[in-house]
Sequence to fold (120 residues):
Amino acid sequence: MSCDSISDDGYSPSSDRPSLDSSSEDIKKMSDDRLGLSSDDVYGIVYIADPSHVLEEQPISLQKDLSYEEEPVQILDRNEQVLRSKSILLVKVLWRSHQVEEATWELEEQMRQQYPYLFE
Fold:
């Protein structure tokens, strides 16, 4: 191929360029040809499983409507929220099947009533 047959954009004559009505498969084949790839090279990528990516199964009892009740596991922290006329006692609760970052602040009084075992 002579320098005369290569245009300013680096393509050879218009026969190598994808036309506007080319299918995506035609365009991909042209791209693979230019890069020196076969379709096996592009799609032959294999993922090797890493056992550290596997989460342990945690049994959850589902109800008929496929919902389940959250269960608190541990109290992580306590805080007293002081307002103008009263104080509110809060506890930070770690819930089953959730990570520490997802712990929520709950009213201590409600948690004591519903889950007294957490405060023993």
Remarks:
- The helical segments are 24-35, 39-43, 108-114.
- The mean pLDDT is 75.
- Residues 24-35 form the longest helix (12 residues).
- The longest strand covers residues 72-82.
